[in-house]
Amino acid sequence: MKRRQLKGIISKIVLFFLVAAVLAFALINFLEEPFDAQKWQSEPLQRYEMVDDLIESQILIGKPKHEVFEILGQPDSQSNSSKDAFIYNIGNPPSFFSSQKEYLLIVLENQQVEKVTLAVD
Questions:
Q1: Which of 7, 29, 60, 97 has its CA 20 to 30 A from that of 36?
Q2: Coil/strand/helix, residue 67
Q3: Residue 117, H or E segment
Q4: What domains can you pick out in the chain, each with its CATH number?
Q5: Over the stretch 12-45, which tens digit does the pLDDT of each residue have?
Q6: In whole angstroms, what is the distance from residue 13 CA to residue 109 CA?
Q7: Quick one: CA dihedral 61, 71, 89, 102, positive or negative?
């Protein structure tokens, strides 16, 4: 009898975590959008919805600085180091876990984009 009860409890726990994982996956996909240059420039507080697609697609890799500015607009700040680095605010994505602010970081070397990643404040 106890073995049967234990199996029932384990089945319910597994089902709970399976449903939670499916819901989390659905919410993450619901909040992500494909990159759209016009929306990026016109809705800066919603950039977090497109930033993953922008990074994963690697559409900026190898592009010169002027093309980056045409696609993304002017950066919110840039570095004064030997490498050109540009920072774009991406807004504040809804999150239960992280209170750190994220930014899009674009690093250029030899006047071309070398790296596109998220940076944390």
A1: 97
A2: helix
A3: strand 112-120
A4: 32-120 (3.30.1450)
A5: 888 888 887 777 666 655 567 899 999 999 999 9
A6: 51
A7: negative
